[in-house]
């Protein structure tokens, strides 16, 4: 069993605060992904859990123990880095067993664990090869095998796929997911790729400037982003974020007015604490806007006319750049027909149930949840 808990963990480099007030409980066998822009403190946090970096404040628990003062090798963790270094002179078989040989484990145990890891990862045919004779993806699997044979309580991955090309990345992502289903170890995985985060995680931790911005399931961070930052970070293409204004709708209700464009009625039951004549950020997912008849099911449709300025076909879908009042927004259409092209005065539909509002000043989400 290995839960991992971080209690008010902080890291300072001189006067620079790299990680601040980091509080998180990770369950046994959970797959948690840290995601966030470059420099937000993902690797630093992971390295503190691994014991490769001292912590400036707080406590780190692995299982029943506070590990603050334990060296890395006493923490029973395995770490796979972006630049996994494989010894060039060792065959795959030798490198898989290396850690266990160093720990002077019995020969039979080493053989058994190496066999298990190599069959889990499909390395059987490669055991006699040295790294120079392996592809990028195969090397990556060897590095993971090396981590698995140690039977750790916790796996730590720091951007393990960022050296691979897009196709291989996708394949390895699937491999890692399958591996977790078989091995069921607690995993903490760092990436700045939000697709990787969405597909792999039980829970995603979105970080920004050394702090946690939101912790939630992939569904939660996508559907109820806690802040404008998360809304703009999770989702591809990102959510349209529009500087807008709350106005009266003339019938006692409220609407959110897009500059030079429509005023979209707001469901008063959903948005609490939203007042007329305040500035907000309006968030609209590209998939919540579609030309009439081309979108998915829409719960509360709101129609308007707009000009399609640009079409970006992506095969199974297309992105449309259109003018919503004075602002440009991206709409996403699934299964576009062959003749989708720039055109003036096209009827579009927005799903009013998919509006997101964020406080203009704090950037926090505005709805019942934030009360
Ligand atoms: N040894 C160090 N001394 C001073 N500052 C450091 C040190 N190590 C990291 N930092 C700073 O701490 C911050 C967090 O770094 P970290 O490596 O954790 O970022 P990251 O989220 O992993 O980014 P990336 O996605 O680029 O890998 C950065 O601003 C970095 O410059
Ligand atoms: Mg990093």
Task: Describe the fold and architecture.
The protein has helices at residues 42-50, 92-102, 107-120, 136-148, 166-183, 194-200, 218-223, 228-233, and strands at 4-13, 16-26, 31-35, 57-62, 65-66, 77-80, 154-158, 186-191, 203-208, 211-216, 240-248, 254-257, 263-265, 279-284, 289-291, 301-313, 317-324, 327-334, 343-351, 355-359. It is an alpha+beta fold. It has two domains: 4-232, P-loop containing nucleotide triphosphate hydrolases (Rossmann fold); 238-370, Nucleic acid-binding proteins (OB fold (Dihydrolipoamide Acetyltransferase, E2P)), CATH 2.40.50. It is elongated and about 80 Å long. The mean pLDDT is 91. The structure holds adenosine-5'-triphosphate and magnesium ion. Residues 13, 16, 18, 36, 38-44, 192 line the site of adenosine-5'-triphosphate (ATP).
- Poorly predicted runs are none
Going by CATH, what is the homologous superfamily of the largest domain?
Answer: P-loop containing nucleotide triphosphate hydrolases
Order of helices and strands: EEEHEEEHHHEHEHEEHHEEEEEEEEEE
Question: How do the strands line up in the largest sheet?
Answer: 6-7-8-3-9-10
Largest sheet: 6 strands, mixed
Structural classification:
alpha+beta
How much helical structure, as a percent, in the residues?
10-25%
Tally of extended strands? 20
How many domains in all? 2
In percent terms, what proportion of residues is strand? Answer: 25-35%
């Amino acid at each position: 069993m290995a839960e991992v808990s971080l209690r008010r963990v902080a890291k300072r480099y001189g006067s620079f605060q790299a990680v601040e007030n980091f509080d998180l409980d990770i369950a046994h066998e959970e797959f948690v992904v840290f995601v966030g822009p470059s420099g937000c403190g993902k690797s630093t946090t992971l390295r503190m859990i691994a014991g490769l970096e001292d912590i400036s404040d707080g406590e780190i628990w692995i299982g029943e123990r506070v590990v603050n003062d334990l060296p890395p090798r006493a923490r029973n963790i395995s770490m796979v880095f972006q630049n996994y270094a494989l010894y060039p002179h060792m065959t795959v078989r030798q490198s898989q067993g290396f850690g266990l040989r160093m720990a002077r484990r019995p020969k039979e145990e080493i053989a058994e664990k190496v066999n298990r890891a190599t069959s889990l990862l499909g390395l059987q045919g490669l055991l006699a090869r040295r790294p120079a004779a392996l592809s990028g993806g195969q090397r990556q699997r060897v590095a993971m095998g090396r981590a698995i044979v140690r039977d750790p309580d916790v796996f730590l991955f720091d951007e393990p796929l960022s050296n691979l090309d897009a196709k291989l990345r996708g394949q390895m992502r699937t491999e890692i997911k399958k591996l977790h289903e078989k091995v069921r170890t607690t995993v903490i995985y760092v990436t700045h790729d939000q697709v990787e985060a969405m597909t792999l995680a039980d829970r995603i931790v979105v970080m920004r400037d050394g702090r946690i911005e939101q912790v939630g399931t992939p569904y939660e961070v996508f559907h109820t982003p806690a802040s404008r930052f998360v809304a703009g970070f999770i989702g591809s293409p990102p959510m349209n974020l529009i500087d807008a204004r709350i106005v009266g709708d003339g019938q006692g209700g409220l609407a959110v007015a897009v500059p030079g464009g429509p005023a979209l009625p707001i469901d008063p039951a959903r948005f609490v604490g939203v007042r007329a004549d305040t500035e907000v950020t309006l968030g609209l997912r590209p998939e919540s806007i579609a030309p009439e008849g081309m979108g998915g099911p829409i719960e509360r449709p709101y129609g308007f006319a707009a000009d399609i300025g640009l079409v970006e076909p992506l095969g199974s879908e297309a992105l449309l750049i259109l003018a919503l009042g004075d602002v440009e927004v991206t709409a996403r259409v699934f299964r576009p027909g062959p003749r989708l092209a720039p055109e003036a005065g096209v009827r579009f539909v927005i799903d009013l149930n998919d509006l997101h509002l964020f406080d203009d000043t704090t950037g926090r989400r505005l709805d019942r949840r934030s009360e």
